[in-house]
Amino acid sequence: MVDALVIIPTYNEIENVERIIRNVLSLQRDFHILIVDDNSPDATASLIKKIQTEYPESLFLIEREGKLGLGTAYISGFEWALERSYQYIFEMDADFSHNPNDLIRLYNACAKGSSQVAIGSRYVTGVNVVNWPMSRVLLSWGASKYVSWITGMDIHDTTAGFICYKREVLENINLKKIRFVGYAFQIEMKFKAYLLGFKIKEIPVIFTDRTQGTSKMSKGIIAEAVFGVIKMKFRSLFKHYDI
């Protein structure tokens, strides 16, 4: 029985998705993959369906009606995983900014170590980012420092999107009460795991910017993260805050 599921949201990732699928499914440890596609105009979902004929027992697809946001894509994936017997549930990008080989290191941190959340961290041992302009490195690094300061979390890479959750973490977070849909979703999930007392460990990884396809970052996503963190921390000070 395979106990690990990798959730990969996609929107116009036809240039990357086949290679990322084959890389993950060729690892020495067995993983299943769930693609959550937001009706990609480039026919990403059609390609995935063709690949499914080769991997009918390990590659799965959720097709959504439109571009509904990163957070809701992951929540759909989490709910799908919790309806099944997976014990380790991963977040991962489709564009190879996250190295598939590091999935095993994240898995081992939770399955063999004492961690309940393992974060593939760009900043726990310095700055491990390749192919980003300095302005973006400073923005990302500064955002993580800002979030850590506001929330009190001792996490170097608070905005990271390469993560392994043990099943019990997702079972204890009220996924229907997650407020953010962009990259602030990553912060909110970590914050709620932190408030619940789960052990969080950062695993150093090298983040490599995409070479194919287009980044989904926007000013609105950044604004949601900057201002949303303050609101999130403020709400957490009250007893009625729903984790």
Describe this structure in words.
The two termini are 31 Å apart. The mean pLDDT is 92. With 243 residues, this protein is of the alpha/beta class. The longest helix is centred in the middle third of the chain and has 18 residues. The strands form two sheets. The chain has a seven-stranded mixed beta sheet, with helices on both faces. The radius of gyration is 17 Å and the shape is globular. It has eight helices and nine strands. Belongs to the glycosyltransferase 2 family.
Shape: globular
Based on secondary structure, the structural category is: alpha/beta
Overall mean pLDDT score?
Answer: 92
Helix content: 25-40%
GO cellular component, one term: membrane
Protein name: Dolichol-phosphate mannosyltransferase
GO molecular function, one term: dolichyl-phosphate beta-D-mannosyltransferase activity
Family: Belongs to the glycosyltransferase 2 family.
Please summarize what this structure is.
This protein has 243 residues and is of the alpha/beta class. It contains eight helices and nine strands.
List the helices and strands and how they pair.
Blueprint: E1 4-10, H1 17-25, E2 32-37, H2 44-52, E3 59-63, H3 70-82, E4 88-91, H4 102-111, E5 117-121, E6 129-130, H5 134-151, E7 163-166, H6 167-172, H7 184-195, E8 200-204, E9 207-208, H8 219-236
Parallel strand pairs: 1-2, 1-4, 2-3, 5-8, 6-9
Antiparallel strand pairs: 4-7, 5-7
